[in-house]
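Changelog note: in this version the structure field was regenerated for every chain. One regenerated record is shown below for reference.
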Amino acid sequence: MGDSARMSAPDLVCLGEPLVEFNQLPDGDLYKAGFGGDTSNTAIAAARQGAQAGYLTAIGQDRFGDLLEELWRREGVDISGVKRDANAPTGIYFVTHSDAGHHFHYYRAGSAASRMTPADLPRDTIAGSKILHVSAISQAISATARETVQAAIDIARAAGVRVCFDTNLRLKLWSLEEARRAISAAIEQADILRPALDDAQTLTGLKDPDAIVDHYLGLGPKLVVMTMGKGGVLLADGTRRHRIPAHRVQAVDATGAGDTFNGNFLGRLIAGDAPLEAARYANAAAALATTGYGAVAPMPRPDAVRRFLAEQAA
Protein backbone atom coordinates (compact mmCIF):
# COMPACT_ATOMS: atom_id res chain seq x y z
CA MET A 1 0.00 0.00 0.00
CA GLY A 2 1.41 3.37 -1.01
CA ASP A 3 1.28 6.62 0.91
CA SER A 4 -1.16 8.09 -1.63
CA ALA A 5 -3.76 5.42 -0.82
CA ARG A 6 -3.60 6.19 2.90
CA MET A 7 -3.75 9.94 2.29
CA SER A 8 -6.86 9.70 0.11
CA ALA A 9 -8.84 7.19 2.17
CA PRO A 10 -11.05 8.11 5.14
CA ASP A 11 -9.55 7.24 8.53
CA LEU A 12 -12.62 5.18 9.46
CA VAL A 13 -14.35 2.98 6.90
CA CYS A 14 -17.67 1.33 7.79
CA LEU A 15 -19.31 -1.45 5.77
CA GLY A 16 -22.90 -2.65 5.92
CA GLU A 17 -26.53 -1.87 5.16
CA PRO A 18 -28.15 1.55 5.59
CA LEU A 19 -31.89 1.82 6.10
CA VAL A 20 -34.58 4.47 6.06
CA GLU A 21 -36.32 4.46 9.43
CA PHE A 22 -39.90 5.15 10.52
CA ASN A 23 -39.99 5.59 14.30
CA GLN A 24 -43.25 5.46 16.27
CA LEU A 25 -44.05 8.64 18.16
CA PRO A 26 -45.63 8.65 21.65
CA ASP A 27 -49.25 8.90 20.42
CA GLY A 28 -48.76 5.61 18.59
CA ASP A 29 -50.41 6.67 15.33
CA LEU A 30 -47.64 8.73 13.74
CA TYR A 31 -44.14 7.74 12.64
CA LYS A 32 -41.18 10.07 12.28
CA ALA A 33 -39.03 9.45 9.22
CA GLY A 34 -35.32 9.08 9.84
CA PHE A 35 -32.35 6.89 9.06
CA GLY A 36 -30.75 3.77 10.48
CA GLY A 37 -28.48 0.87 9.80
CA ASP A 38 -25.89 0.22 12.48
CA THR A 39 -22.72 0.81 10.48
CA SER A 40 -24.15 3.85 8.70
CA ASN A 41 -25.06 5.27 12.10
CA THR A 42 -21.51 4.62 13.28
CA ALA A 43 -20.01 6.49 10.33
CA ILE A 44 -22.30 9.48 10.93
CA ALA A 45 -21.61 9.54 14.67
CA ALA A 46 -17.87 9.55 13.98
CA ALA A 47 -18.20 12.28 11.35
CA ARG A 48 -20.13 14.46 13.80
CA GLN A 49 -17.11 14.22 16.08
CA GLY A 50 -14.83 15.46 13.31
CA ALA A 51 -13.45 12.11 12.16
CA GLN A 52 -12.89 11.42 8.48
CA ALA A 53 -15.44 8.64 7.99
CA GLY A 54 -16.48 6.78 4.86
CA TYR A 55 -19.24 4.29 4.10
CA LEU A 56 -19.21 1.23 1.85
CA THR A 57 -22.58 -0.16 0.78
CA ALA A 58 -25.11 -0.52 -2.02
CA ILE A 59 -28.46 1.30 -2.15
CA GLY A 60 -31.35 1.28 -4.59
CA GLN A 61 -31.82 3.69 -7.44
CA ASP A 62 -34.90 4.96 -5.60
CA ARG A 63 -36.04 7.90 -3.48
CA PHE A 64 -34.95 6.20 -0.25
CA GLY A 65 -31.46 5.81 -1.71
CA ASP A 66 -31.49 9.50 -2.67
CA LEU A 67 -32.42 10.44 0.90
CA LEU A 68 -29.52 8.41 2.29
CA GLU A 69 -27.04 9.99 -0.11
CA GLU A 70 -28.31 13.42 0.87
CA LEU A 71 -27.91 12.50 4.54
CA TRP A 72 -24.31 11.30 4.15
CA ARG A 73 -23.32 14.37 2.15
CA ARG A 74 -24.90 16.60 4.78
CA GLU A 75 -23.01 14.81 7.54
CA GLY A 76 -19.68 14.87 5.72
CA VAL A 77 -19.43 11.09 5.24
CA ASP A 78 -17.34 9.98 2.24
CA ILE A 79 -19.63 8.01 -0.12
CA SER A 80 -17.21 7.29 -2.94
CA GLY A 81 -17.66 3.61 -1.98
CA VAL A 82 -21.46 3.64 -2.26
CA LYS A 83 -22.95 1.75 -5.22
CA ARG A 84 -26.39 2.50 -6.69
CA ASP A 85 -28.30 -0.61 -7.83
CA ALA A 86 -31.15 -0.07 -10.29
CA ASN A 87 -32.41 -3.63 -9.79
CA ALA A 88 -32.82 -3.75 -6.00
CA PRO A 89 -34.50 -1.53 -3.39
CA THR A 90 -33.13 0.35 -0.42
CA GLY A 91 -34.16 -1.30 2.85
CA ILE A 92 -36.58 0.32 5.31
CA TYR A 93 -37.68 -0.47 8.86
CA PHE A 94 -40.19 0.59 11.49
CA VAL A 95 -39.52 1.06 15.21
CA THR A 96 -42.38 0.60 17.68
CA HIS A 97 -42.25 1.12 21.44
CA SER A 98 -43.79 -0.65 24.43
CA ASP A 99 -43.11 -1.13 28.13
CA ALA A 100 -40.74 -3.93 27.13
CA GLY A 101 -38.60 -1.58 25.05
CA HIS A 102 -38.27 -0.79 21.37
CA HIS A 103 -39.06 -3.29 18.63
CA PHE A 104 -37.80 -3.43 15.04
CA HIS A 105 -39.82 -4.45 11.98
CA TYR A 106 -37.66 -4.75 8.85
CA TYR A 107 -38.50 -4.67 5.15
CA ARG A 108 -35.08 -5.38 3.71
CA ALA A 109 -35.28 -8.75 1.91
CA GLY A 110 -33.48 -8.54 -1.43
CA SER A 111 -32.14 -5.06 -0.71
CA ALA A 112 -29.29 -3.60 -2.72
CA ALA A 113 -26.93 -3.97 0.24
CA SER A 114 -27.80 -7.66 0.61
CA ARG A 115 -26.59 -8.19 -2.98
CA MET A 116 -23.09 -6.81 -2.31
CA THR A 117 -20.18 -9.02 -3.34
CA PRO A 118 -16.42 -8.84 -2.71
CA ALA A 119 -16.00 -7.43 -6.23
CA ASP A 120 -17.86 -4.28 -5.09
CA LEU A 121 -15.21 -3.43 -2.50
CA PRO A 122 -12.82 -0.50 -3.11
CA ARG A 123 -9.64 -2.22 -1.95
CA ASP A 124 -7.51 0.94 -1.82
CA THR A 125 -10.06 2.71 0.38
CA ILE A 126 -10.03 -0.09 2.95
CA ALA A 127 -6.27 -0.58 2.79
CA GLY A 128 -5.69 3.16 3.15
CA SER A 129 -7.86 3.59 6.25
CA LYS A 130 -6.91 3.34 9.92
CA ILE A 131 -9.92 1.35 11.15
CA LEU A 132 -12.43 -0.88 9.34
CA HIS A 133 -15.73 -1.24 11.19
CA VAL A 134 -18.15 -4.09 10.44
CA SER A 135 -20.89 -5.84 12.39
CA ALA A 136 -22.81 -9.08 12.66
CA ILE A 137 -25.69 -7.39 10.85
CA SER A 138 -23.32 -6.67 7.95
CA GLN A 139 -22.75 -10.44 7.85
CA ALA A 140 -26.32 -11.57 8.44
CA ILE A 141 -28.21 -9.89 5.60
CA SER A 142 -27.11 -12.46 2.99
CA ALA A 143 -24.49 -15.05 2.12
CA THR A 144 -22.82 -12.72 -0.38
CA ALA A 145 -22.77 -9.89 2.16
CA ARG A 146 -21.05 -12.27 4.59
CA GLU A 147 -18.42 -13.03 1.94
CA THR A 148 -18.03 -9.30 1.37
CA VAL A 149 -17.44 -8.64 5.06
CA GLN A 150 -14.81 -11.38 5.15
CA ALA A 151 -13.12 -9.99 2.05
CA ALA A 152 -13.01 -6.51 3.62
CA ILE A 153 -11.48 -7.94 6.81
CA ASP A 154 -8.88 -9.78 4.74
CA ILE A 155 -7.95 -6.57 2.89
CA ALA A 156 -7.70 -4.63 6.15
CA ARG A 157 -5.57 -7.23 7.93
CA ALA A 158 -3.21 -7.56 4.97
CA ALA A 159 -2.70 -3.77 5.03
CA GLY A 160 -2.22 -3.51 8.79
CA VAL A 161 -5.55 -1.74 9.27
CA ARG A 162 -7.27 -2.34 12.61
CA VAL A 163 -10.60 -4.20 12.45
CA CYS A 164 -13.47 -3.30 14.79
CA PHE A 165 -16.32 -5.80 15.00
CA ASP A 166 -19.71 -5.26 16.65
CA THR A 167 -21.58 -8.45 17.64
CA ASN A 168 -24.94 -6.74 16.96
CA LEU A 169 -27.24 -9.77 16.98
CA ARG A 170 -30.49 -9.92 14.98
CA LEU A 171 -31.97 -13.41 15.19
CA LYS A 172 -34.69 -12.46 12.71
CA LEU A 173 -31.94 -12.48 10.07
CA TRP A 174 -30.33 -15.85 10.84
CA SER A 175 -30.32 -18.74 13.30
CA LEU A 176 -28.39 -18.59 16.55
CA GLU A 177 -26.19 -21.51 15.45
CA GLU A 178 -25.33 -19.78 12.17
CA ALA A 179 -24.73 -16.49 13.97
CA ARG A 180 -22.42 -18.10 16.51
CA ARG A 181 -20.23 -19.64 13.80
CA ALA A 182 -19.89 -16.49 11.70
CA ILE A 183 -19.51 -14.11 14.64
CA SER A 184 -16.84 -16.25 16.33
CA ALA A 185 -14.86 -16.38 13.11
CA ALA A 186 -15.01 -12.60 12.79
CA ILE A 187 -14.08 -12.05 16.44
CA GLU A 188 -10.91 -14.10 15.93
CA GLN A 189 -9.84 -11.59 13.27
CA ALA A 190 -10.83 -8.41 15.12
CA ASP A 191 -8.51 -6.03 16.94
CA ILE A 192 -11.37 -4.21 18.69
CA LEU A 193 -14.50 -6.09 19.79
CA ARG A 194 -17.72 -4.21 20.57
CA PRO A 195 -20.28 -6.53 22.16
CA ALA A 196 -23.42 -5.55 24.01
CA LEU A 197 -24.01 -7.58 27.17
CA ASP A 198 -27.39 -9.04 26.17
CA ASP A 199 -26.08 -10.17 22.76
CA ALA A 200 -22.92 -11.58 24.35
CA GLN A 201 -24.94 -13.57 26.89
CA THR A 202 -27.01 -15.10 24.10
CA LEU A 203 -23.99 -15.86 21.94
CA THR A 204 -21.73 -17.32 24.63
CA GLY A 205 -24.20 -18.84 27.09
CA LEU A 206 -22.31 -17.00 29.84
CA LYS A 207 -23.98 -14.54 32.21
CA ASP A 208 -21.18 -12.84 34.14
CA PRO A 209 -19.71 -9.83 32.30
CA ASP A 210 -16.15 -10.59 33.41
CA ALA A 211 -16.43 -14.18 32.23
CA ILE A 212 -17.72 -12.97 28.86
CA VAL A 213 -14.84 -10.52 28.48
CA ASP A 214 -12.34 -13.26 29.42
CA HIS A 215 -13.88 -15.53 26.81
CA TYR A 216 -13.69 -12.90 24.10
CA LEU A 217 -10.12 -11.87 24.92
CA GLY A 218 -9.18 -15.52 24.58
CA LEU A 219 -10.39 -15.50 20.98
CA GLY A 220 -7.85 -12.87 19.94
CA PRO A 221 -9.09 -9.26 20.13
CA LYS A 222 -6.65 -6.86 21.77
CA LEU A 223 -9.45 -4.69 23.17
CA VAL A 224 -12.99 -5.58 24.31
CA VAL A 225 -15.42 -2.74 25.01
CA MET A 226 -18.76 -4.12 26.23
CA THR A 227 -21.77 -1.89 26.71
CA MET A 228 -24.14 -3.05 29.44
CA GLY A 229 -27.07 -0.63 29.39
CA LYS A 230 -27.72 0.64 32.91
CA GLY A 231 -24.61 -1.28 33.97
CA GLY A 232 -22.39 1.09 32.04
CA VAL A 233 -19.33 -0.04 30.08
CA LEU A 234 -16.71 -2.71 30.74
CA LEU A 235 -13.39 -2.17 28.96
CA ALA A 236 -10.54 -4.69 28.96
CA ASP A 237 -7.26 -5.10 27.10
CA GLY A 238 -6.02 -8.34 28.65
CA THR A 239 -3.98 -6.52 31.27
CA ARG A 240 -6.29 -3.93 32.75
CA ARG A 241 -10.05 -3.80 33.23
CA HIS A 242 -12.15 -0.68 33.75
CA ARG A 243 -15.82 -0.19 34.60
CA ILE A 244 -17.43 3.05 33.49
CA PRO A 245 -20.79 3.78 35.16
CA ALA A 246 -23.84 4.67 33.12
CA HIS A 247 -25.10 8.26 33.07
CA ARG A 248 -28.58 9.13 34.29
CA VAL A 249 -30.57 10.91 31.59
CA GLN A 250 -34.22 11.31 30.62
CA ALA A 251 -34.13 8.54 28.02
CA VAL A 252 -36.99 8.29 25.50
CA ASP A 253 -35.55 6.08 22.74
CA ALA A 254 -32.46 3.86 22.82
CA THR A 255 -32.44 3.28 19.06
CA GLY A 256 -28.90 3.77 17.77
CA ALA A 257 -27.30 4.34 21.18
CA GLY A 258 -24.80 1.54 20.64
CA ASP A 259 -23.94 2.88 17.20
CA THR A 260 -23.45 6.34 18.68
CA PHE A 261 -21.06 4.76 21.17
CA ASN A 262 -19.17 3.05 18.35
CA GLY A 263 -18.76 6.17 16.22
CA ASN A 264 -17.66 8.31 19.15
CA PHE A 265 -15.31 5.66 20.53
CA LEU A 266 -13.63 5.01 17.19
CA GLY A 267 -13.55 8.70 16.34
CA ARG A 268 -11.81 9.51 19.61
CA LEU A 269 -9.32 6.65 19.15
CA ILE A 270 -8.45 8.02 15.73
CA ALA A 271 -8.05 11.48 17.28
CA GLY A 272 -5.44 10.02 19.63
CA ASP A 273 -7.36 9.34 22.84
CA ALA A 274 -6.41 6.35 24.99
CA PRO A 275 -9.10 3.62 24.97
CA LEU A 276 -10.36 4.47 28.48
CA GLU A 277 -10.67 8.17 27.66
CA ALA A 278 -12.39 7.34 24.36
CA ALA A 279 -14.82 4.97 26.12
CA ARG A 280 -15.74 7.56 28.74
CA TYR A 281 -16.45 10.09 26.01
CA ALA A 282 -18.47 7.58 23.97
CA ASN A 283 -20.44 6.53 27.05
CA ALA A 284 -21.57 10.13 27.54
CA ALA A 285 -22.43 10.55 23.85
CA ALA A 286 -24.51 7.35 23.85
CA ALA A 287 -26.44 8.53 26.91
CA LEU A 288 -27.27 11.82 25.20
CA ALA A 289 -28.41 9.95 22.09
CA THR A 290 -31.21 8.29 24.07
CA THR A 291 -32.83 11.63 24.91
CA GLY A 292 -34.32 12.06 21.42
CA TYR A 293 -36.19 9.93 18.91
CA GLY A 294 -34.56 8.03 16.06
CA ALA A 295 -31.11 6.65 15.42
CA VAL A 296 -29.43 9.65 13.79
CA ALA A 297 -31.17 12.87 14.78
CA PRO A 298 -30.25 12.78 18.51
CA MET A 299 -26.56 11.94 17.96
CA PRO A 300 -24.68 14.67 19.85
CA ARG A 301 -21.91 16.90 18.55
CA PRO A 302 -18.66 17.53 20.45
CA ASP A 303 -19.78 20.67 22.27
CA ALA A 304 -22.82 18.87 23.72
CA VAL A 305 -20.75 15.86 24.83
CA ARG A 306 -18.06 17.97 26.48
CA ARG A 307 -20.64 20.16 28.20
CA PHE A 308 -22.42 17.06 29.52
CA LEU A 309 -19.16 15.54 30.78
CA ALA A 310 -18.30 18.81 32.54
CA GLU A 311 -21.72 18.89 34.20
CA GLN A 312 -21.34 15.27 35.34
CA ALA A 313 -17.94 16.03 36.84
CA ALA A 314 -19.13 19.14 38.71
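Spot check on this record: The radius of gyration is 18 Å. The mean pLDDT is 93.
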